TrEMBL record:
Listed name of the protein: Iron-sulfur cluster carrier protein
Domain of life: Bacteria
HAMAP family: Mrp_NBP35 (MF_02040)
Gene Ontology biological process terms, A to Z: iron-sulfur cluster assembly
Keywords: ATP-binding, Hydrolase, Iron, Iron-sulfur, Metal-binding, Nucleotide-binding
Binding site for ATP: 114-121
InterPro entries: FSCA_dom_sf, Mrp-like_CS, Mrp/NBP35_ATP-bd, NUBPL-like, P-loop_NTPase, YlxH/NBP35
Coiled-coil region list: none
Higher taxonomy: Bacteria, Bacillati, Bacillota, Bacilli, Bacillales
Function: Binds and transfers iron-sulfur (Fe-S) clusters to target apoproteins. Can hydrolyze ATP.
One GO MF term attached to the UniProt entry: metal ion binding
Length: 350
């Protein structure tokens, strides 16, 4: 059975990727927790720069070493080393390469849910479009690599082109989009394990020419699996929006995604309650098909607010400019998404 001292011994000789000193020398192993009944080891590691490909490589090394030593599962959090430690070893750190992950001008917003089927991707797509309609420069990563759907939802028929060594994202409705769906033929299933998924997500950050963007939205897979964990470790300053339906079970499960965000120091911007009700066009009556109160309860639990309640409704389809999940600006839901986008921008300015 692994102990705290054995974990320190196993990881202590690993090199911090930027300062090139061992984790033991830098006192960078900040926290170790062991759940003996589940044989689960979780560690918190300090490094010079978070949200980089080097961090992912170190993460893989740590997981492999601890599993070889007998751990069944491994959890990792990364934090930035203190200014004092960085100053003491600054000579060892190379010049910081400017890229999307360390850009001070781009705000990352992850759209998460506890379970599938709550309309998370629909929310991601329409929130991205609404932000673009407000004049913002917006990117959207379809990070639901197993269940990619953004290109179809937005009616995208083109594929990205490669310019030099960079992939140029496809633009639609003023939003730059990248998705696993662009790189798979004939809607084939993806049969990958966690590390490969992390590499693909890393490619979306480093190998795509995003240019100057204000907001980069990530449509996460439902739940708290590998991709969600990678996003939490790669993007320590990422904000999150949690999508749920009013149903108590959906809200209960969504709370897990919210709790994961809180535990990894991600700020939850708010909750969006989707499928909140159905409004009859004939009578104007509202029917609460999935119950009521789930969004409010979730927001209260996460100490945040409900950004908006979206009814069940269908977009107006245009055969000449087909986008089956995008609501037009003058559509009632299009207006609701604009209101939500304005709230998001307002919250980020505070």
């Amino acid at each position: 059975m692994l102990t705290e001292s054995s974990v320190r011994e196993i990881l202590g000789s690993l090199k911090e990727p930027f300062l090139h000193k061992s984790l033991a020398e830098l006192d960078a192993i900040e926290e170790i927790k062991i759940k003996e009944e589940k044989n689960h080891v979780s560690v918190k590691i300090g490094i010079a720069r978070t949200g980089t490909s080097e961090q992912l490589q170190l993460q893989t090394q740590i997981v492999n070493l601890l599993k070889e030593a007998g751990a069944t599962t491994v959890g990792i959090r990364f934090s930035q080393l203190s200014d004092e430690v960085l100053a003491a070893h600054r000579h060892a750190e190379p010049e910081k390469e400017e890229n999307l992950l360390n850009s001070k001008n781009t705000t990352f917003i992850a759209i998460a849910s506890g379970k599938g089927g709550v309309g998370k991707s629909t929310v991601s797509v329409n929130l991205a479009v609404a932000l673009a309609r407000l004049g913002k420069k917006v990117g959207l990563i379809d990070a639901d690599i197993y269940g990619f759907s953004v290109p179809d939802m937005m009616g995208i028929t083109k594929r990205p082109v490669v310019r030099g060594e960079k992939i140029i994202p496809v633009e639609r409705f003023g939003v730059q989009v990248i998705s696993m769906g662009f790189f798979v033929e004939d809607n084939s299933p993806i049969i990958w394990r966690g590390p490969m998924l992390g590499k693909m997500l890393n490619s979306f950050f480093h190998e795509v020419e995003w240019g100057e963007i204000d907001y980069l939205l990530l449509d996460l897979p439902p739940g708290t699996g590998d991709i969600a964990l990678d996003v939490h470790s790669m993007l320590p300053s990422c904000k999150e929006i949690i999508v749920t339906t009013p149903h108590p079970t959906a809200a209960f499960v969504a709370a897990r995604a919210g709790a994961m965000a809180v535990k990894t120091d991600h700020e939850v911007l708010g909750v969006i309650e989707n499928m909140a009700y159905f409004e009859s066009k004939l009578t104007g009556e509202k029917e609460y098909v999935f119950g009521r109160g789930g969004g409010d309860k979730l927001a209260e639990e996460l100490n945040t607010e409900v950004l908006g309640r979206l009814p069940l409704n269908q977009p107006d389809w245009n055969d000449e400019d087909f986008a089956p999940s995008v609501y037009q600006e003058d559509h009632p839901l299009g207006k609701l998404y604009l209101d939500i986008a304005e709230k998001v921008v307002g919250r980020l300015k505070k």
